[in-house]
């Protein structure tokens, strides 16, 4: 449908504006956060770094097929011992001579789409020639490279429509041509996250809209004490709260979209968008679940699936707490991270 890599111009991508892109995120996540996740990872975390930091050859090679869905990408930042603090990553790359291949070793964990990915954007520390300080660089690691494996993480009770796995790198030889030359340091992966978090800030509103509409319809149909439960004041209060919170979330997303159109949206504003709209959607889903009584916990009524999904959305792409601290740092000028 043209949703993959939609904000990118050229290379077979739709070249959508930020608000139109946000609206696609709403419609995908209205159904399931895992579907929106697939699209976020492909578009913002795999295609966007290639388009922003890649060579012309890398763009031509990967983007058109990724836009068509023929090639699946993933994004490897998190590690078993490095989640909220990605700067502490251990995955590293050693160059085999000044113009040689890079040898990658390490392990990435909690990676959306890794078991089905053809190409992984892997962030690793390396020491450039002429320097003695390690710096984070991005590498395109391809399926089939020797020493590369992506075991699936099984047993998730959340985001079950989205496949998750590891990236295991044992002496993987990656050609220099697969290095993303356009960025160095933590700002590389963090600027990809800013793109993805923007889409999540919209998508979460879609999840809230989905649960609100289901709760509204259910409470109009369900009769207790001789009347539809939507007729009771306490139920109406819940519906009104959901309705108002959704409207505010949508306005925040729309305002951020207009800022983004003018190149004025800052990463901290994106933290605010992701943090507040996901918190709103999770609260909305729990409230909507309560309005269905016992049926609320059943899969066939769908709201519990959204509740479970949103627990992940609250945690990934920067936890709620990490975004709180990022905003707190911007307000006070003092870092509370460590
Ligand atoms: P800090 O000193 O703040 O920054 C280091 C450099 O990065 C720049 N920067 C950003 N650039 C773009 N966007 C942002 N949001 C940025 N935040 C910071 C910054 O300007 C600086 O640049 P320079 O040139 O001065 O070097 O770094 P810090 O070590 O203090 O860390 C800050 C912190 C904690 C906020 C950051 O580490 C963080 O965001 N941690 C959370 C990690 C995270 O979000 N992981 C997500 C993994 S991917 C994922 O979850 C995908 S789920 C996908 C799905 O299924 O949908
Ligand atoms: P931790 O960092 O260990 O945090 C645990 C708790 O401690 C959290 O509540 C956190 O907020 C809190 N905490 C940590 N530091 C502080 C602090 N300084 N102050 C206050 N509280 C703090 N990663 C990728 O790279 N690519 C992906 O595609 C990807 N997909 C994912 C898919 C799923 C289903 C899930 C669950 C995760 C995915 N992630 C992915 C990883 C995700 O980004 C991390 O789970 C997240 O960043 C948190 O890291 P952690 O799980 O190690 O928790």
Structure, explained:
With 338 residues, this protein is α+β, with helices and mostly antiparallel strands. It has three domains: 9-67, Orthogonal Bundle (Butyryl-Coa Dehydrogenase, subunit A, domain 1), CATH 1.10.540; 73-183, Beta Barrel (Butyryl-CoA Dehydrogenase, subunit A, domain 2), CATH 2.40.110.10; 188-332, Butyryl-CoA Dehydrogenase, subunit A, domain 3 (Up-down Bundle). Helix content is 48%, strand content 17%. It has helices at residues 18-31, 33-53, 56-67, 187-221, 233-261, 267-291, 303-315, 320-332, and strands spanning 9-10, 13-14, 73-76, 92-95, 102-112, 119-126, 135-142, 148-149, 164-174, 223-224, 227-228. The strands form three sheets. Strands 3, 4, 5, 6, 7, 8 and 9 form a seven-stranded mixed beta sheet that branches. A two-stranded antiparallel sheet has the order 1-2. Strands 10-11 form a two-stranded antiparallel ribbon. A hairpin with an 8-residue loop joins β6 and β7. The chain starts with 8 loop residues before the first strand and ends in a 6-residue tail after the last helix. The model has no long low-confidence stretch (mean pLDDT 97). 3-thiaglutaryl-CoA is lined by residues 37, 40-41, 75, 77-78, 84, 86-87, 112, 185-187, 190-191, 193-194, 267, 316-318, 322, 326, 337.
